[in-house]
Amino acid sequence: MSSSIILLLRVCFVIIFAWAVRARPYTKVFDVRNFGAVGNGKIDCSKAFMKAFEMACAWEGDAMVYIPKGTYYAGLTIFSGEKDRCKFRTLRFQVDGIVKAPTDLVGDSWIKFIYIKRLTIDGGGTFDGQGALAWKLNDCNMNRHCRKLPKSITFDFVAHSTVNRIHSVNSKSVHINVHACRNMKFNSITISAPDDSPNTDGIHIGNSKSISIMSSMIGTGDDCISMSPGSEDIYIANVTCGPGHGISVGSLGGDKDELNVKGVIVRNCTLIGTDNGVRIKTWAKSYPNVVQNVTFEDIFMNSVDKPIFIDQEYCPSGLCDTKHSSNVQIRDVHYRNIWGSSSTKLAVHFVCSRSLPCQNLELKRIFLRYSGKDGPVSSSCTHARGDSFGKQIPASCLK
């Protein structure tokens, strides 16, 4: 081989090597300790967290905000990419430590992510809402104008993002709130609070599209997962729920001009000792709304109160106007391959609207046992229309 060819090959190798080095992904790490955070559980680290985010926001490439092991006390913390001011290509929050809220924090939220795209939260860390002292102040089941307690983690106008392996414990209100978001994935989330902690929904979704929740464990004092108006294209799979109030669509119809709920799939889930199983709830007197194309399938119930439940007379305070029927139309709801045990005799209960009966309900392969002394398992349908297929225990009440 001639020397000129050898020289040419060496030049090509150098060029290729230089290109590979430049093309190799590089992530700029912003360690919160470098901005004043101290992991002793005593010093308020909220400003340090937000400063680390501001620096990551301005980075023109892949960025990481790093919260290492330790206990970090933090007050209200807002991570905002409003007006597209962030320059990063992707942003990762690596949470290895424990982030702890003040016991006396009030307001709408504690940790807020807003107007951010291409966000990943990971690391296996814990967000501790320290809600025990605040729960006694919560009378929201009786008072719709109750004192506002903060949600632990809120995502507002967040898109194309993923949350992995995060723990949330003892939130004062909702653990994770998803509002006006698009294309978000929640994987391997662990949420826990006592079964008597009020309004501590696990994951609450509203006005959001293309949201998935997978392979997670949620036990709390309210709905494990709740889907409010505007929830569209929601996929929930391999979630274990309990304690709690089950997996719920609603409540709906409480406000004027609410967006519809459509395209919900709940699959391969387990509910253990919950107050409800899979539920759709609308206010007894309500504004117009529509729930359509909802599927609950391959669901195991273990000693669940009201495993299959549509409640269009929802009124937790007992002070609602029940003279007027719900104006929410429920249609195209499918219950397929749901089995296990009911802790009450009435395992399938459809209480639909007098003025807008439920349409196109489907019961397929339902097998729910009950071993109480008050008789065999039963079902009840009011203003419900649909069909049944395959095994039905209890016997279907649909006509």
UniProtKB/TrEMBL annotation:
Subcellular location: Secreted, Cell wall
Domain of life: Eukaryota
Record: active site: H245
BP term (GO), one: carbohydrate metabolic process
Gene Ontology terms for molecular function: polygalacturonase activity
SUPFAM superfamilies cross-referenced by the UniProt entry: Pectin lyase-like
Major localisation: secreted
Record-linked SMART domains: PbH1
Xref: Gene3D superfamilies: Single-stranded right-handed beta-helix, Pectin lyase-like
Signal peptide start-end: 1-23
Pfam families: Glyco_hydro_28
Keyword terms, alphabetized: Cell wall, Cell wall biogenesis/degradation, Glycosidase, Hydrolase, Secreted, Signal
Protein family (similarity comment): Belongs to the glycosyl hydrolase 28 family.
Protein name: Exopolygalacturonase-like
